[in-house]
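Below is how a single chain appears once it has passed through the pipeline. First comes the sequence as given, then the structure the pipeline wrote out for it. We keep one example in the README because the format questions we get most often are answered faster by looking than by reading.
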Amino acid sequence: MNFICSSCSTRYPLDTREWVCAQCGGLFEIENAPRFDPLQINSTDATLWRYRALIPLPANAAPVSLGEGFTPLVETRLNDATFFAKLDYLQPSGSFKDRGTTVLISALTAFGVTRALDDSSGNAAASLSAYAARAGIAAEIFVPAHASPAKLAQIQIYGARLNKIEGARENAARAVQDAAKKGDAYYASHYYNPFVLAGMKTTAWEIWEQLNRRAPDAVIAPVGHGSNFIGLARGFADLQNAGLIEKIPRLIAAQADVIAPLARAAERGLDESPAVAPARTIAEGIAISQPVRGKEILRVVKQSRGAVIAMSEDAIASARNELARVGLYVEPTSATAVAALLQAKDIFQPNDTIVI
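Resulting structure:
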């Protein structure tokens, strides 16, 4: 296996310290990754590592695991909407990011990496800090200074070094990339690195198993840079290519209206998402003014007959509170997807199976 540039096809070793193609700036993919084969699922393993044979990693890589994956899929009724909630907040660090981090840190351990950097509004940084601590890797995190104090405390208690960067979320990204260019630390980016996307695909595979080996009619997810969304799309595509489902679900991206580059691009019929002005939102996990994988997200939405839905701050807060009253305690970023369902439920058929 190699990394290969998705734009110019230049190949790099899996342990390269580049995070994008040095020739053209294109994004990396993993070349010759395993194809999905249901016979390779280890049904005795109740974590995402039940798919170990299907996850592209160096041959000598041993899983660095905290028991992540195979989270509950809970049927939920809210107002007059029924959906299945995929409870990825029950991951070890509290977010879906653990799916990608466990794969990435497993690879970095195999490569002998001793220092890792990342930038994040909180969840990805907490996840990287947890798994780096588990693996004995020193983590250094760059976050917006206005990030949630609770998330910053979580990052630090794992032992990571924290750098608070003033201004917009994008400033933290520039700071970490500058740091990565100057030293020998690995930029363990949760949105650039293809090992992360390989872990994210497991969400789709789990949903398929939990729905008795069938695909839902639609999946709604909050989208910032889109690693979760792209992982879902690619995971369902794996199932389709293996002949296990007829078509991928309608994939619906939910954004906060105050910073919704994908929604603005979709409204204008664009194939790429131009940057919008940085802004703060209670859904801070998706406050991204220009998603790295915006072009792929918009293509997935179009091909799956999906949509991009932007929600007001009030609607997001209301959905969070209503979810709590049916037993689901989530942060506003996650509630954005439920707000989108409540606003756009007329685009679904009465008997559609919807997963959030």
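Residues 97-111 form the longest helix (15 residues).

See the next section for the split statistics.
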